[in-house]
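User: What would this chain look like folded?
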Amino acid sequence: MISLLYGACIVSWQTLRAHKVRTLLTCLSLAIAVLALVIVDAASQIASTAVVAEARLSQGLPETWLLTFPAGSGVEAKAQRAKSLAQAILGPSNGSAVLIAEASARLNGTGVTVIAVKGDLRSIRPYRLVSGGWLVASATPNYSPELVLNKPAASLLGGGAPHLTLPGSALVISARNIGVVDDLGSTPTIYLNLDDVLLWSGLLPDRWSLNILGHASSERPGEAAVALKEASSVSELEADPPVRIDGLGPTADALATVRLTFLLVAAVALLVGTLGILNIGLVSLHERVEEIALRRATGALALQIGLSVVMESVLTALVAALGACVLAWVAVPLVAPALFSNLSLAASLDFPYQTAIVGIAVAGAAGFAGGIIPAARATRIQIANVMRA
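Assistant: Here's the prediction, encoded as structure tokens.
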């Protein structure tokens, strides 16, 4: 049987080389289908990577919940206690809680958004460091507070020394810029430690908005919400119920739906390519009736004839699929960065090798399906009828 397959492959390859234009057109129809299959899967994976990377920075890691409460006299003390309680609950399971105070301030005379944090904000929103470092909590507040700027704020500041006017205070503070981060924000934003703000402002005025971010492991859904609710209750905070803000679940579902839709379109294109192989195979068989009859007259078996016809379609399909996968492998890394601006936020860009292998296998099966009918007809060609005609 192995010798029969080997002989059929040799004959099929010689036939394909003898009809280059027909082989090229057959390859082209199936290559487009396989290329669409691989490109669609690669694009869906890249889109998912870029969207998830952006959501992690702007909203938070999966299972990030927000607890919001109004500012007022003494509220920040209760909020700090609630944050500590939430951290104590979430910490053992690799979770975290961060207290955030947000308001408008002036940096070198220009309006900016200031976000004062207590806790490790980058454990929930992993901002990418552009230069310098991130805020480090200190046992004692800094009289010259450390600032971290986002990219718009860094462009606004330039190389000058940062002078910060905090909300609710007429004092101008000489701050120290220690780093720049990419938070995907278009508004100039500065980050500093909440303890430093309290040192200069005393109690936070009403113009500050206060909230706590809580994050838990994805394997513990809802744990962060329970921790925040319990912490606010114990701390006697009048807060709204926690709200999940990461939004990664609905986003992933939407991307999966879009991916499935386009994969179905690619599957239809693959079916069209199979029908194209079948059509060209039948036309080719009609043109090669005398050749096949001559081979039968010189001793070729019907099984050899059928195998050679099937192998023509299979080899054509495999060559087309391999060419499409190589083209996709070259094109995806070149085109993806231009289509997805946030792709640099992802850790890596992986080519969908598994999909490429599936595409090659499916193309081989399509070639077999498209060649089986012409092969069956080829085995029934009668030498006498051909000679009589």
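The chain has a mean pLDDT of 77. If you want, I can go into more detail on any region.
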